[in-house]
Amino acid sequence: MEAGDAGNGSAAAAQIKGNGDDASCKPLPPCCIKAKAGVPESEAKCHDTVVSGWFTEPRSRFGKTSKVQYYNNPMWPGEAHSLKVEKILYQGKSPYQEILVFESSTYGNVLVLDGIVQLTDKDECAYQEMVTHLPLCSIPSPKNVLVVGGGDGGVLREIARHDSVETIDICEIDQLVIDVCKEFFPNLSMGFKDPRVRLHVGDAVDFLRNSPEGKYDAIIVDSSDPIGPAQALVEKPFIQTIARALKPGGVLCNLAESMWLHTHLIQDMLSICHQTFKGSVHYAWTSVPTYPSGVIGFLLCAKEGRPVNFLTPVNPIEKIQGATKAGKELRFYNSEIHRAAFVLPTFVRRELESYYTTSASTEKEKPKESVSKSQKIKILPNNAILTAS
Amino acid sequence: MEAGDAGNGSAAAAQIKGNGDDASCKPLPPCCIKAKAGVPESEAKCHDTVVSGWFTEPRSRFGKTSKVQYYNNPMWPGEAHSLKVEKILYQGKSPYQEILVFESSTYGNVLVLDGIVQLTDKDECAYQEMVTHLPLCSIPSPKNVLVVGGGDGGVLREIARHDSVETIDICEIDQLVIDVCKEFFPNLSMGFKDPRVRLHVGDAVDFLRNSPEGKYDAIIVDSSDPIGPAQALVEKPFIQTIARALKPGGVLCNLAESMWLHTHLIQDMLSICHQTFKGSVHYAWTSVPTYPSGVIGFLLCAKEGRPVNFLTPVNPIEKIQGATKAGKELRFYNSEIHRAAFVLPTFVRRELESYYTTSASTEKEKPKESVSKSQKIKILPNNAILTAS
Q1: In the UniProt record, which is one GO cellular component term (chains A, B) (predicted)?
Q2: Residues near B162 by Cβ (< 8 Å), separated by ≥ 6?
């Protein structure tokens, strides 16, 4: 289903109103039954992740089984981050996921999908700016860009800073996410207002299969964690479909979880990207306080063609005329942060290095590409960068 | 009070035994009364920060007032990090603070002082290695080093990697912290075993006042947050006492909180260090998952004398013979991470830049030092490093 243009979410947005009214929550449902000695009952908020006025990710302690309950994402067992809730603004359920928006005490509005924090007003800059400008500043003059997911609009807002860009396709599966974000995250959903944006509501796998080969200069996968609806987005067939849709020398930026928590997942994704892309493949990371372990990683991949050196932006943001046109200054990204994002702690380097050593032994199983360079990973002692190019 | 040598904590260590036995906790005290629908009562752990088997920082929801209670450190209101508790190993109270050690499900053993996580087995490397090697790799051949705080021994362990070092003084106010860490954090407290270590148990302000002027090549302040016993350690008189104890060209590394949460505090500390040190002053940061917002910052300051360029290690860890002698490989720090630690996100740069602009106007109030360069902050567009040198 294609929604036609970026501005047509208003009818759906109207339907979502009224759900966030605190008054509608009384009398309190069982999910808000409070701990005996918590704060007064009247301060309780109405959601089963919110207890005594605090939202906690990713567990609900008040489910039917009276046990700690995980949502569909037990990716960080043994730890949880909590945010104090001022007011629940919205809760609803789409065909794909549960959506919660609340106003927090110190991080502004918070978007939660299936119990997992996706973004907050305070720290969204770190994620949105990095996931966008790491790929787009690494190629000389991006023209056609695709966003997979990204229904909040933040990545669109960041792409719009690049005046070389001619078309911005976005394929988001969940119309409700778009509508809810237009209502509660205007500083992100402003990204939909750019006239270059074409919104496609539907499954990204189908969308990419139907895209012309070699269409895009850059594809940015801005999805939720790879369990649930986003699982297919880290698997090999999808990555191959992405590679097919990229121009020669085109780039992919895909989410790649936390270096502190998910090395095995990063290794799997590196393996797939390493096999699929014939250009360079790199892991980068940044600080995002409300994500588990306080960091999020990215896999930057280039298709064979004009070589891409992700480590040194050839299209530095400081020189892009459109960079501050979007009405808001950059808050996190700059060219130095770009370079620093690829520098890895020793334990990460070691874990990914040993992975690559193992992977290299299975290299013979793959058909040789005459154009591609050796895919063996290199650790350069002096610049300490992990690279597959 | 001086404890004589690094090995004499055994008597005190013996006294602490037995307190961590889970069996001694039954029947459950009121602090462990559970939420109605939490996990079974038998899984409860005995500490007022531990509810339904989870430790939560920095609030207790089960205090006498039935309200959210902060310890003495309300430095990150509105958010909390929780760790699942396998077993409480120790709880006690020294004249200075409350001490809790527990075994977590996924971060190993955890040290908590006054309700605040100080370190975990899993991520201590990021903090201990950075706070130590950022200063020691920035000067050619450190000989005399002082640690303020650091009773867990981790910084000592890291200093010991530097074979140029001849003496390592440590001034920790709380003997109980030392004893507890010897019991439950052997991989950190092994730092006390190095024959170069001299332990002084007492107040660091007194200790430094009695130190010869110009004694140390480097001083590392490894304290708790600057509220409570550690408050004096970020104030001007103490920083001046530190500067006095440093050799010309000597360096200080002081904790400087989170760039996401405590910009005002960082500004205050920058101001004090900027006024006190006549060499370079820099802010650096690193990722530590169990610290609030997932990051911790450092202030690196050099006394006038031989110029110190913190940004490029002149004493790179990769070339230090003793770097792997301590029996354990580095897990986090390397020379590239050193350089990247000084790269700041745009919002941090902006907030500290505007601070420096204001601060520069009060520059005239200070007596001029003929040796010192201009103290005005510079933002270099190309390398984006904030510097006061």
Answers
A1: cytosol
A2: B136, B142, B315, B320, B322, B323
Residue B294 at interface with chain A, using a CB cutoff of 8 Å = yes
- Is residue B263 less than 8 Å (CB to CB) from chain A? no
Q: Which of A68, A295, A383 sits opposite B336 (nearest CB)?
A: A383
Residue closest to B192 by CA, chosen among B159, B164, B144, B219 = B159
What is the spatial distance between Cα B116 and Cα B81, in angstroms, rounded to a whole number?
A: 10
Q: How many CB atoms lie within 10 A of CB A347?
A: 17
Predicted local distance difference test score (pLDDT) of residue A355: 57
Model pTM score:
0.82
Name the residue with tokens 């301060």: A43
Sheet holding A197-201, edge to edge: A197-201, A167-172, A144-149, A216-222, A246-255, A295-302, A281-287
Q: CA separation (Å) from B146 to A228, B73, B191, B214, B269? A: 52, 26, 14, 12, 20
Torsion of CA B118, B120, B122, B128, to 10 degrees: 40
pLDDT for B323 = 87
Distance of CA B251 to the CA centre of its chain: 16
Distance separating alpha carbons of residues A209 and A240, to the nearest angstrom: 10
Alpha carbons A117 and A130: distance in angstroms, whole number: 18
Q: Most B CBs within 10 Å: which of A82, A117, A348, as the mutation test of the B interface?
A: A82
> How far is C-alpha B14 from the geometric centre of its chain's CA atoms?
26
Could you tell me if residue B249 is left (phi over 0), alpha (psi between -120 and 50 degrees) or otherwise beta?
A: left
- Tell me which of A287-291, A356-360, B24-28 is least confident: B24-28
Q: Which of A39, A54, A346 sits opposite B330 (nearest CB)?
A: A346
Whether B37 sits inside 8 A of A66 (CB atoms) is yes
Q: Which residue has the higher pLDDT, A93 or A9?
A: A93
In 3D space, the residue among B256, B300, B259 whose CA is nearest the CA of residue B280 turns out to be B300
B222 is a catalytic site residue: yes
Among A310, A246, A244, A240, smallest CA distance to A275 is for: A240
pLDDT in tens, B145-160: 999 999 999 999 999 9
Q: What is the Cα–Cα distance from A38 to B61, expressed in whole angstroms?
A: 6
Query: How many Cβ atoms sit within 10 Å of the Cβ of residue A227?
Result: 15
d(CA B281, CA B92): 38
Q: Which of A206, A295, A224 is nearest to A259 (CA)?
A: A295
Cα angle B302, B308, B313; round to 5: 120
Q: Which two tokens stand for residue B330?
A: 């580095």
Closest partner residue to A332 among B80, B285, B346, by Cβ?
Answer: B346
Measured over the CA atoms of residue B28, residue B31, residue B37 and residue B43, the dihedral's sign is negative
Mark which residues 61-100 of B lie under 8 Å from A by CB: 61-63, 66-68, 76-84
Smallest Cα distance from B5 to chain A, Å: 33
Subunit contact B289:A260, Cβ cutoff 8 A: yes
Distance CA A149, CA A112 (A): 15
Tokens of A198: 């074409």
Cβ-based contacts under 8 A for chains A and B: 189
Q: How far apart are CA A108 and CA B260, in angstroms?
A: 14
pLDDT of residue B236: 87
B315 close to B138: Cβ distance less than 8 angstroms: yes
- Is residue B223 over pLDDT 50? yes
Query: Helices (H), strands (E): how many in chain A?
Result: 10, 17
Q: Is B283 helix (H, G, I), strand (E, B) or coil?
A: strand
Q: Which of A231-240, B250-259, B309-318 has the lowest mean pLDDT?
A: A231-240
pLDDT, tens only, B71-103:
444 677 888 888 989 999 999 999 999 999 999
Task: Report how far Cα A329 is from the mean position of its chain's Cα atoms.
Answer: 21
Give the ipTM: 0.81
Type of residue at A334 = N
- Mean pLDDT, residues A59-71: 44
